[in-house]
Every structure is written in structure tokens, then in C-alpha cells.
Specification:
Belongs to the DEAD box helicase family. DEAH subfamily. DDX11/CHL1 sub-subfamily. By secondary structure, this protein is α/β, with parallel strands linked by helices. The chain is 49% helix and 11% strand. Helix 22 runs antiparallel to helix 23.
Length: 839
């Protein structure tokens, strides 16, 4: 007999050993590490109790595997509870009514699960590949008609449909709008399919495409993804650039960028000869073809590349096909932007209610949100946008109707006011958004600020509903190509101008209270930058909708910053902050705060210190001594490229760089991202060279390599330096952000205003946290597995300050010792590596 559903919980008895607890989470190995078991238990509890939180698990501890096993264990138990019919019992109903409702609920769920399982099982059992339709030629000939750029009547569409044209389809026919609604919002099943929806779901977001691909590969290693009979139903979402299989559209994207690629895709949704051959018709046969793709996509775990291959094999668009599978997926993997932007969530019809949201690699999430919602444009961009609107009105003014013409004229007046603003001396370098709109003056509206703001908001809604910027920009693009027929088509600045203006207008309308306009003159021209100061404006809707929202990462300290800026509205009893230790033994880690160099010169790398030759010599001599002790690879992080280049230039002149090169081969982080691979290959080859392994036969050859890198640049995150690649990580100075940055000053002042009663200066707290998050991320490049080992040298006496030390990861901080004299740090390192060599 089944136990009462209300008593169902994780099947781990009190006092259970690690093996039993690992089985309870269906961990793919016989016994999980203690830190993995702790992480899985904490996440399970957070989901079950509808909490939000920040979870830190150092890279190399199997974080992704633990998160997946915990989340899916909860999902399966929750589904079991639903099948037993005790979710959301109605306390005010008679017992027999509740029992009847529960029985009906069980019947519905069992029928749904049985039908879906049978359908996907049949797909998996097929031995013959799906025969793809004959590839059709895509007619990519240019269409000389300008009518494609005419925006449809705004008022007529509202009257007919009760709303504005869909945001992504402002200029398409009703047929294509209907198709977009069916495909893009495929999470809203039609008619009899309305019950065919999986709830709750797990949404797993990460920063890059490669991270999501790695996540899917990890899922395949778990019993949930590897089950041959009933693997978890997962779907991966990506952009058209990643998923489009139409060669003509890909060429447009490669030449003109993502916006043009999106436009071309939408144009090819029209019926007729130019219709994309990979998009099934909007009829019963087309729906059936999309459903077949959906079932194939869900029948086994696939990453984006595998979905693209499936689309090519089945001759079906994987971009829209993946969206078709959304409603029935248990796991949805997607990049940050699709999850964080409300318009993207609405377009995809993501069902966050009662679902679990996991945002991995979230250490830079705050900066990502602020960056995504910031926009910068110049006086030149304003002039270009004004010219584009004039050209558009000149071409279409006789064909525009009602509200469209009214708002275009208003937009033209607004641009004229913005142009006038740009030519006037700025009284200040920072304005609130309300001040900025008011300072545009009577050119926008001669009555008063309230009317001005009301008209501005109407303009903002119209821009959102029609996306007129896409039409104006597209027409400008076509005009440019007409005027430059001999030039190769490249993405030029004029095409960007309207999109920048639209982003500015939408930002002003959406977040007026927590944004600032920064003003600066460069080469005599004004630049305006809208900056969002409060990331919670964007993040709070996720917290409001989802059952559980978790930020995870290898280096999340200082966690207090996430609590303050993203989870401020979450009650203490609903917030979890969890940081687990590392799986490596404590004696595999050694940290050292070095206060002085070999000659006793204090190590303090302030902004002015980089101009002191004596201090740079002291740094070089210190590294030269450490190179004699550290085996294999050594990575040295500088606060900036400027600091690094200045130091290396001085060492070349003084001969210190040549002395370092005799001890280890010297490599330097390139400024061009295209050169990173070559540098890393050279660095790894130098470490693997025979001279490293046989020092007695070649005593004068360099022993390993030293890599000079920059904090917050290309090598400080996303690249793993395991084993011999990083036996020592050196932090030179503290990478404090630019104190003269106006944007940083605004953020710091906003934090002070956020809680005027705080006992500490929240602006200074932000300043320290930005620095230490960058330090922690850089140090986190080393130690990737349980047998790895490394030392961490902090070359600046300020690392010993309590406010700095408290912000370091515990697994490093607990093993860090202060060395007021250089000699003691040498002895500590020598003893550490001697012990490792003996072992």
C-alpha cells in the first residue's frame, strides 16, 4: 500500500550512510563526496520549502551533477505526490469531495503520463531514420518592393484582436502572425492539447552556449538522462544564430548581424515561393510534422548541436521545433538573456509558476543584468535616427494611418528635442530619468511635465507593440545598399541607430525610478548612457513567479552582495545562503599573504605604485625567487592590462624579464581574443616539455612556464587550469574598480540611499565586493579535482585586512597565513611542494 502522499519525502533514514544517501538522490556513482551530499540536501530542502538562495560549490566538486540529481529527485517525488492527489487539498471541502477530486486528478495524470510515455517509447524504438523531404532551393532574390517596411495599422489591429500586433511581428500578415503565435508561444497548447502540459518544470540557465552543452552532457551521465526506457524530457533553447539551418538566413546573419537575421527569418515565414522550406505549413499536416519533431526531440536527451542535426535530418526548423517541445519538457536549458528578459519569457510562454529556476555560473549575474539593460548612444546616433525617421516618413507618409502616423510624428519631435539637447552645454554629468525627460523641454510638449511624461509613455507602449524600429532600420538598410551598390554589404552604424534609440526610450519608460542618464563629451560630441542601478527591477519578477530560484557558482563570495541587490525583498526565513567546502584535502591548499618583498620593501600596489620602479623591481625579484620553488605552471594576475604592460616594459629594460625567462618560459595574456588559444597551447606545451620532467639532464633549461594574465579579462574565468597548469596562482595587488568611474559612483550612491540606516557604508561595501569577486574568480581557475593541489600568493599586505580576508572563499581563506617577511613565505612554499613531491 502506498504511503500517504503528505508523508512522501526524500527516502533517507536518520543516520543513513553516504552510500544510502547517494542512492536516494540517484547519484551516478556509488558514493558521492560529503560536499556533494550536503549540496544536494540543501537544494532539495530549498525547492521543497519554496525558498530562494545562493549556493557556492567550488569548481571541481561536481556542482552541476549535484544540482541536477537533487532537482530531478525532487521533481520525481513531487510528481508522485501529484499522482496520489494530495497537492493543494481544499480544507473547506467535505472529505468525499476531496477524495473524488483526488481520484479524478490521479486519473488525468496517469492517462497523460501513459500517453506521453507510449508516444516517446515508440519514437525510441524506431529502427528506421525519419526520411527527410527533398531539400528545396531557397529563393533569396532581392525584392524591390518597399511595402514590406510599411507598419500595419495600429488601431485596426487593436480593434480586431483586442491588443496590439505581437511584439516580434509588427509588419507581417495576419497569416504569419497566427503562425508566430502558434510556433513562438508553443507553450500554449491548442484545444484538446491544453492538458498536455508538464508542470512544474526545471529551468536551468547559464551564461554561454558551451556551458549549456556541457550541462546536457552531465545530464546524460545521470540515471535521469541515461535511462534507456524513460529518460528525462529535456529541451535546449538557443538563438537563431545557433539553431537556424537555412543557409540563406545564416548568410544574412553573418553579414548584417542578429537583428537582420531575425528579420529575414520572419520574412521567410510568408506563404509563397520565398517561404522557408524548413518551416511546415500552418495546417494539420504541418502541425503533425512539428509534433513529430517535438517527440523526437523529447525522446532522448539532446544538446543544441544534436537538435540542429535532428532538424537537418527531418527537414524541420529546430529553432521553432524546440519551442514546440517546451510545454512537455521537464528540463529547459536556456541562456541568461532568454530567462532574464521579460519580453523573451512572454514570447516563449515560459511557465515559471511553481517551477524551479537554477541560474548556474551566476557570479557575474548582477553585472550581466545591469549591462543588458544599459544603453549608450552618441549625438551622431541621434542624428542618424532622425534622418532615418525623415526618410521613412517621406516614403510612407501617404500610406500611414491614424495612430502610426501620430506616433511617428511624436517620435520625430522627440528626436528633434534630443538633437537640441545634444547641442546645448550640459549643466551636469548625471540626470535622473525624470530630469532628463523634463530637460528635453517644450520641444516635446509645451504644456507641463505630467502631460509630457504621459505622451512619452504612450510612445513607449507603441514602440513595444509595433517594434517600428525594426521597420525603419530595415528600410534604412535597403536605402544604404541602393546608394552603395559597389560596396560589400557590411553592418554599418546607421542601421544600429534606431535600435539604440528604441532601447533608450524603452529603458526610460520601464525603470524611471532606478536609472540614471550619464552625459559626457568626446571629441566635441555628446554621449548619453542610460544605466540601471537596481538589478532587482529585472530579477524580482522571477522571484515572484517561480517556486524556487537558485543562483549557483564556483565562486559566489561575497554572497552578501547577492542578498542585498537581488534578494532584498525575500524574507529571511525564505532565503538560503550555502557555501560548501572543497573536495580536496586541506593540505592540498596553501594561501599566503605576503607583506614585503625580498629587500623588505612593503608590497602595496595602489594606483600610484605602478609608477615606482623600485616596487616593480621588488615584485620581479619576488617572482624570480618563487619561480625557483614552484614546479610546472604559475599564473600571475595583474589588476589591468595597463599595469601588466607597464611592468613588463620596465622588466625588459632592467633585465628582470630575461632572468625570469631563464627559470620559466614566459607567456602573456593577449589583448586579442583570437590569440588566446595559441598562447594557451604554447603555455601547456612548455609545461609538458621534457626539460620539466628531467631537470638533472638539462639544468640550465627553463622549468615549466609562467603566464602573466589580467583580472576580469579572458583568462580569469571560463578557463580551467588543472594540475600542472596551475601549481601556483599569484595575485599582484587588489583589482579595485576605477574609482573615477561616474557609473560606479552612481551605483555606490544608490546603494547608500537604498538603506540610509545601515551601520556600514553600503557604497564602500559594493566597492570592496566588486574587487573581491574578481579576485575569487581568478583564484578559482586552479584546483579542479580531489587530487589537485596549488598555492595562492597574495602579494599585497592589504589582503590581511579583515574586511578583505572575510570575502575570500572559505576553502582558501582557512588555509591562508600572513607573512610579514618574505623569507617565511619562501620556506612555507618550499615545504608545501617538498611534501607533494615526497607523496
Amino acid at each position: 500500500m502506498d504511503p500517504p502522499a503528505s508523508s512522501l519525502a526524500l527516502a533517507v533514514p536518520d543516520g543513513a550512510d553516504a552510500e544510502a544517501r547517494s542512492r536516494a538522490f540517484r547519484f551516478p556513482y556509488p558514493v558521492a563526496y560529503d560536499v556533494q551530499l550536503q549540496l544536494m540536501a540543501e537544494l532539495f530542502r530549498a525547492i521543497e520549502e519554496r525558498r530562494a538562495g545562493v549556493f557556492e560549490s567550488p569548481t571541481g566538486t561536481g556542482k552541476t551533477l549535484s544540482l541536477l540529481c537533487s532537482a530531478f529527485t525532487w521533481l520525481h517525488l513531487n510528481r508522485r505526490r501529484a499522482q496520489l492527489g494530495t497537492i493543494a487539498d481544499a480544507d473547506d471541502e467535505p472529505d468525499w469531495v476531496v477524495a473524488h477530486d483526488q481520484a479524478k486528478q490521479r486519473e488525468r495524470l496517469e492517462a497523460h503520463d501513459a500517453e506521453l510515455a507510449a508516444r516517446l517509447r515508440a519514437i525510441r524504438q524506431q529502427t528506421c531514420a525519419y526520411r527527410a523531404a527533398l531539400t528545396q532551393r531557397i529563393d533569396d532574390a532581392a525584392d524591390d518592393s518597399d511595402s514590406d517596411f510599411l507598419v500595419p495599422d495600429y488601431d485596426e489591429h487593436r480593434a480586431a484582436h483586442g491588443r496590439a500586433p505581437p511584439a516580434d511581428t509588427p509588419y507581417l500578415s495576419d497569416e504569419v502572425r497566427a503562425m508566430m503565435h502558434a510556433l513562438e508561444t508553443s507553450g500554449e497548447p491548442r484545444g484538446a492539447d491544453a492538458a498536455d502540459v508538464t508542470t512544474p518544470q526545471i529551468y536551468y540557465a547559464s551564461r554561454t552556449h558551451s556551458q549549456l552543452t556541457q550541462l546536457v552532457h552531465e545530464l546524460k551521465r545521470t540515471p535521469f538522462g541515461a535511462d534507456p526506457d524513460d529518460p528525462v524530457r529535456s529541451i535546449s533553447l538557443g538563438s537563431r544564430r545557433q539553431m537556424c539551418i537555412n543557409a540563406a538566413v545564416q548568410r544574412v546573419g553573418a553579414t548584417f548581424g542578429a537583428e537582420a537575421m531575425n528579420e529575414r527569418c520572419l520574412e521567410l515565414m510568408e506563404s509563397g515561393k520565398k517561404r522557408c522550406p524548413y518551416l511546415p505549413a500552418q495546417d494539420a499536416a504541418g502541425d503533425a510534422k512539428m509534433d513529430v519533431f517535438r517527440d523526437h526531440a523529447l525522446a532522448q536527451v539532446r544538446d543544441i548541436e544534436e537538435l540542429v542535426e535532428l532538424g537537418q535530418h527531418m527537414h524541420v526548423c529546430p529553432y521553432f521545433g524546440a519551442r514546440r517541445a517546451l510545454a512537455q519538457a521537464q528540463l529547459v536549458t536556456l541562456p541568461y538573456n532568454l530567462l532574464l528578459q521579460q519580453e523573451s519569457r512572454e514570447a516563449l510562454a515560459l511557465r515559471l509558476e511553481d517551477s524551479v529556476v537554477i541560474i548556474d555560473e551566476a557570479h557575474n549575474l548582477i553585472d550581466t543584468i545591469l549591462g543588458a539593460y544599459s544603453v549608450e548612444l552618441s549625438e551622431e546616433h541621434v542624428e542618424q535616427a532622425a534622418g532615418q525617421v525623415r526618410a521613412y516618413l517621406a516614403r510612407f507618409s501617404m500610406r500611414l494611418k491614424g495612430t502610426n502616423e501620430e506616433h511617428l510624428r511624436t517620435l520625430q519631435v522627440f528626436l528633434a528635442a534630443l538633437q537640441a539637447f545634444c547641442t546645448q552645454p550640459a549643466p551636469t554629468d548625471s540626470l535622473s530619468t525624470a530630469q532628463f525627460v523634463a530637460r528635453l523641454g517644450g520641444s516635446v510638449d509645451q504644456i507641463n511635465v505630467r502631460v509630457r511624461l504621459t505622451q512619452f509613455l504612450r510612445l513607449e507602449h507603441w514602440l513595444k507593440d509595433t517594434r517600428i524600429a525594426r521597420k525603419i532600420s530595415g528600410y534604412a538598410d535597403k536605402l544604404w545598399l541602393r546608394e552603395h551598390p559597389q560596396q560589400a554589404p557590411t553592418r554599418h552604424a546607421k542601421v544600429h541607430a534606431m535600435h539604440l534609440l528604441e532601447r533608450l526610450l524603452l529603458a526610460l519608460g520601464d525603470r524611471t525610478a532606478n536609472g540614471r542618464i550619464l552625459l559626457a563629451r568626446r571629441d566635441g560630441r555628446l554621449w548619453l548612457k542610460y544605466v540601471l542601478l537596481n538589478p532587482a527591477d529585472v530579477f524580482q519578477p522571477l522571484l515572484d513567479a517561480a517556486r524556487c530560484v537558485v543562483l549557483a557558482g564556483g565562486t559566489m563570495e561575497p554572497i552578501a552582495e547577492f542578498r542585498r541587490q537581488l534578494f532584498g525583498a525575500v524574507p529571511a526565513e525564505r532565503f538560503t545562503a550555502y557555501a560548501c567546502g572543497h573536495i580536496v584535502p586541506k593540505d592540498n591548499v596553501l594561501g599566503a599573504v605576503v607583506h614585503a618583498g625580498p629587500k623588505g620593501l612593503p608590497l602595496e600596489f595602489t594606483h600610484a605604485a605602478w609608477e615606482k620602479p623600485a616596487l616593480l623591481d621588488e615584485l620581479g625579484n619576488a617572482l624570480s625567487n618563487y619561480c625557483n620553488i614552484v614546479p610546472h605552471g604559475m599564473i600571475v594576475f595583474f589588476p589591468s592590462y595597463g599595469n601588466l604592460h607597464k611592468t613588463l616594459a620596465h622588466w625588459r629594460t632592467s633585465g628582470l624579464l630575461a632572468r625570469l625567462a631563464k627559470r620559466k618560459r614566459v607567456f602573456q595574456e593577449p589583448t586579442d581574443a583570437h590569440d588566446v588559444d595559441a598562447v594557451l597551447q604554447g603555455y601547456a606545451s612548455a609545461i609538458a616539455a621534457p626539460t620539466v620532467r628531467a631537470p638533472l639532464t638539462q639544468p640550465d633549461a627553463p622549468k615549466g612556464a609562467i603566464l602573466f594574465a589580467v583580472v576580469n579579462a579572458k583568462l580569469s574565468e571560463g578557463i580551467n587550469f588543472a594540475d600542472n597548469l596551475a601549481r601556483c596562482v599569484v595575485m599582484v595587488g587588489l583589482p579595485f574598480p576605477n574609482a573615477k568611474s561616474k557609473e560606479l559612483a552612481e551605483r555606490m550612491e544608490y546603494m547608500r540611499r537604498l538603506d540610509a540606516t545601515a551601520k556600514t557604508d553600503l557604497g564602500r561595501e559594493l566597492y570592496l565586493n566588486l574587487c573581491m569577486r574578481a579576485v575569487n574568480q581568478s583564484m578559482g581557475r586552479a584546483i579542479r579535482h580531489k587530487d589537485d593541489y596549488a598555492t595562492f600568493l597574495l602579494l599585497d599586505h592589504r589582503y590581511a585586512r579583515k574586511e578583505i580576508a572575510a570575502r575570500m572563499p572559505k576553502w582558501i581563506g582557512e588555509q591562508t597565513i600572513d607573512h610579514e617577511r618574505f623569507g617565511t613565505s619562501i620556506r612555507a612554499l618550499a615545504g608545501f611542494y617538498r611534501a607533494k613531491a615526497a607523496r
